[in-house]
Amino acid sequence: MDTDFIVIGGGIAGASAGCALAAHGSVVVLEREDQPGYHTTGRSAALYTENYGNRVIRVLTIASKPYFTRHGFLSPRGVLWLARADQGAAIDRALVEAKAFPQRFEEVAKAEALRLLPVLEPDYVGRAILEPDATDMDVHGIHQSFLKGLRDAGGRLVTATGDAVARRGGGGWEVETRQGAFRAPVVVNAAGAWADVVAAAAGVRAVGLVPKRRTALTFDAPADMAVHGWPMALDVDETFYFKPEAGRVLASPADETPMAPCDAQPDEMDIALCVDRIERATRLRVRRITHKWAGLRSFVADKTPVVGEAPDAPGFFWCAGQGGYGIMTSPAMGRCVAALATGGDLPEDLRAMGLGRGDLAPQRLQRTA
Ligand SMILES: Cc1cc2nc3c(=O)[nH]c(=O)nc-3n(C[C@H](O)[C@H](O)[C@H](O)COP(=O)(O)OP(=O)(O)OC[C@H]3O[C@@H](n4cnc5c(N)ncnc54)[C@H](O)[C@@H]3O)c2cc1C
Tell me: the pLDDT tens digits for 60-103? Predict the structure, then answer.
């Protein structure tokens, strides 16, 4: 065997897994593109929030925070969750869900919401929740820190591999690429939206991954407003969000359009929807869009990541289904992959928060398939 572990995919998932695995043996991370952040990892909204997704996501997010704070990757932002008068039930639901976790998540008076985000249209806002401890993340810095950790431990990132194809052979796995062939007893599938494609090529049963397009854009902030200190505004039913971004405003219609894995591009209808929703909720007027893009957030049926050995393929490990939380869960996800791929159980801090292997295992999907 050439190496102990091969990781397919060099986005945040593959980089974090590669970095964590490098403490246990030799690692090669294979990335199809010239740049490892080219797909979803380089297209996120860069928000860290502990009030997003189900229990498993929240545990993985909370367990990732120490890594981010240790390296200085978080900066203050806050999130203001917004509801119109007819969305009161959604606000009540969000407050109940947040109770199971210790972070601050409190309803604020409408006047306070308007003070925090003066650009809101007063007639639009019914109720609001403030999550003061949500932060911005330095996504590039996080990704690079995992790649540096990989290199420092003697691991390698190989880019421009084309579609790496894994096949069983020689008592382990052989992976063919444009940069040559690699052999290892363990292969980790961290191919983002392509994870089921990689599995199919390897003869491994799929987990039912559905890539969903999400659109984002930036536009000029009003010249007479200091936007930098605004919290992110997030519709409680997740139909739009916006936040300051390098002197401009970053916004999304929070679309989730299922599609085959691809280099996702923004759709003009989603851009128009985004502008309409933001102009209804605020006094912002979108006169010039400075940048627009789209990325694929990939989910399995229960919207929970898949980490663990494929039941039908010894030595083939999943690290997929990161959905809309793949950056903020990445340090914990990488540690889970390394623990399981080296024959151990989930890391102790995660188990102490109630996470079990079954929560992440691919078997749970194949049982219900
Ligand atoms: C608009 C938007 C906003 C988001 N906001 C947030 C946010 O605020 N916070 C958050 O935590 N998350 C957010 N996300 C989600 C987050 O970006 C993803 O969960 C995360 O980037 C997924 O990382 P990944 O490594 O799995 O995928 P990717 O970054 O897509 O990496 C997968 C890599 O695998 C490579 N690959 C695929 N097939 C092969 C093959 N056969 N051989 C070799 N390489 C292969 C691809 O080229 C790709 O580079 C957002 C996403 C979008 C689109």
Answer: 999 999 999 999 999 999 999 999 999 999 999 999 988 887 78
User: Is 317 near ligand 1, meaning CB less than 6 Å away?
Assistant: no
CATH class name, domain 79-132+210-299: alpha beta
Interval 263-280: pLDDT, tens: 999 999 999 999 999 999
Distance CA 160, CA 115 (A): 49
Instruction: Tell me how far the alpha carbon of residue 304 lies from the centroid of ligand 1, in angstroms.
Output: 15
CB of 51 within 6 A of ligand 1: the answer is no
* Average of per-residue pLDDT values in the chain: 96
CA dist 106 to 96, 98, 222, 237, Å? 11, 9, 29, 17
* Statement: 5-42+139-208+302-368 belongs to CATH 2.30.30.240: no
* Identity of residue 152: D
Q: Is the CB of 313 under 6 A from ligand 1?
A: no
At 326, the amino acid letter reads G
For residues 124-154, one letter each, b for 16 or more C-beta atoms within 10 angstroms of the residue's C-beta and e for the rest, the string is ebbbbbbbbbbbbbbbeebbebbbebbeebe
CA nearest ligand 1 atom 22, residue: 326
Does residue 32 line the site of ligand 1, with CB under 6 A? yes
How much is the pTM?
Answer: 0.97
Is the C-beta atom of 218 inside 6 A of ligand 1?
Answer: no
Cβ of 328 below 6 Å from ligand 1: yes
- pLDDT tens-digit readout, 202-260: 999 999 999 999 999 999 998 888 899 999 999 999 999 999 999 999 999 999 999 99
Query: Can you tell me the distance from the alpha carbon of 188 to that of 307, in angstroms, rounded to the nearest whole number?
Result: 9
Domain definitions of the chain by residue range: 5-42+139-208+302-368, 79-132+210-299
What's the 105 CA to ligand 1 centre distance in angstroms?
28
| 367 Cα: distance to centroid of ligand 1 (angstroms) | 26
pLDDT in tens, 125-139: 999 999 999 999 999
